Design the sequence.
């Protein structure tokens, strides 16, 4: 079974149009997850933070519940200010570093 060139080109054009539609659908999602606040601070969602800290969603929930990690709810979605995340990392990284120093002495 052979396909003529016109038929093949038609199918390829449809496939490329579908790829273009999918790409346009994904672009707003990535821009939306990197929302900037008026003060220039960036908002990170659960997915971003899980990847950044290499932790599960449940671990983030535990940090939120204990009050260690400030968060904001916008339209039933959890967001974290980048500055709060940096403070959280600095605080917990320094305590981890201090524990390691005590263990090595």
Sequence:
């Amino acid at each position: 079974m052979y396909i003529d060139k016109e038929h093949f080109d038609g199918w390829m054009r449809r496939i490329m149009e579908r790829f273009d539609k999918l790409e346009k659908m994904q672009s707003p999602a990535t821009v939306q997850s990197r929302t900037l606040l008026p003060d220039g601070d960036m908002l990170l969602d659960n997915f971003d933070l899980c990847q950044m800290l290499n932790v599960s969603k449940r671990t983030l929930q535990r940090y939120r519940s204990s009050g260690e990690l400030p968060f904001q709810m916008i339209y039933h979605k959890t967001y974290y200010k980048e500055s709060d995340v940096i403070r959280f990392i600095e605080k917990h990284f320094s305590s981890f570093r201090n524990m390691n120093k005590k263990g090595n002495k």
Observations:
- The mean pLDDT is 79.
